Amino acid sequence: QYVDWSREVVPPGKPLPSASRFHITFDFGYVALDIGHCVPEDAGEYSVKAINNLGQCTSSINLKVIAKGSIILDSQRPEGLEKIRQLEEAQPFQRPEVPEAVTRQRPVFTQPLQNIDSIAEGATAHF
């Protein structure tokens, strides 16, 4: 004897997926389906079919899930909301215009670059 739970979705009669939220119990004639923390996508018709050598029996139920808002619109810290608004309205920092210095000499390196003969992978190389 075995028990088969299914959900009437496209395609109809599709077996329940193996998931941590679905727990099926079939013990000494007791049959149960437990769904941990239902979500709106779980809504629909569920069927159970018990089958043995002498025949089969089917029963169905309709599950409706009342959805909560999935997007949190209210501030979790309303005391900080006014400060955020002030920061967003503030003018961005602008550097003062500084005229570029006029040079009268070509670029000159004061020291030559030094080779790095061994450095560990993942280490920072500084030249």
From TrEMBL:
Top-rank taxon, per record: Eukaryota
Domain Immunoglobulin I-set span(s) in chain numbering: 3-65
InterPro entries named among the record's database cross-references: Ig-like_dom_sf (IPR036179), Ig-like_fold (IPR013783), Ig_I-set (IPR013098)
Coiled coil segments of this chain: none
Pfam families assigned to the protein according to its UniProt record, in alphabetical order: I-set
Protein name: Immunoglobulin I-set domain-containing protein
Source organism of the structure: Graphocephala atropunctata
